[in-house]
Write a structure and sequence with these properties.
The protein is an alpha+beta fold. It has one domain. It contains 1 helix and 2 strands; from the N terminus they run H-E-E. A two-stranded antiparallel sheet has the order 1-2. Pfam families: Transposase_mut.
Length: 86
């Protein structure tokens, strides 16, 4: 005698996984953009350094659409240097 123990809603599972993947990729890309800005400026955000080459001036938002959905990227703005990410 077999009993159904667990019922899985496939659509809800896929939606949840897509949301998790999208959020994870978005956080990773934003962290990479921040790390690249740190490298270009020669100092981390809010860090005082004599070796600083440029300064942060906020960020602007860019939307990126991928298979999992739309992501918001925060692209750093810099004073004294050009931010160009590969």
């Amino acid at each position: 005698m077999s009993q159904q123990i667990l019922q899985v809603d496939q659509a809800m599972l896929e939606t949840t996984l897509d949301r998790m993947v999208r959020r994870s990729v978005e956080e990773t890309l934003n962290a990479m953009l921040d790390a690249e800005a740190d490298e270009i400026t020669g100092a981390a955000r809010y860090e005082r350094s004599g070796d600083r080459k440029a300064y942060r001036a906020g960020h602007y938002k860019r939307d990126l659409t991928v298979k999992a959905g739309k992501m918001s990227l925060k692209v750093p703005k810099l004073k004294g240097a050009v931010f160009e990410s590969a």
